[in-house]
Amino acid sequence: MAPKRYAQDDPREWLNRAQSNLVQAKEQKTGVYLEDLCFQAQQATEKAIKAVLLHRHVRFPYIHDLSELVNLLRKSGEKIPPFLEEAVELTDFAVEARYPSTAEEVTPEEYQETVTAAERVVKWATDLIAPMDNKTA
What's the burial of 41, exposed, middle or buried (CB within 10 Å: 0-12/13-18/19+)? Predict the structure, then answer.
């Protein structure tokens, strides 16, 4: 069942999308490349960060560079946890991993690390934004 939808500029809708991407990233099925699942994990991470930017009323460009998005968060005064700094490495999956390339195949270990990184970022963003629901209830 799909989650409740919010307006496109509502951080909760961006979190919904992040969580949707994370669900897809975790669904290993026959015939699906791990690179494609890592792309979904990168998307979950990106949308979670953008949700926090929206929550802080910070405008952001529609880019996939997680380092640049984290820098925007830092400039807004947000404390950046170490796992978020580490998650910027998922940027590599934003473009390169989506297409046939010369990049090396993703190993099961790399895949699991990618999903774990995305889970941490999505949880962090959810914990920051979740109090909104209490204020609007």
Answer: buried
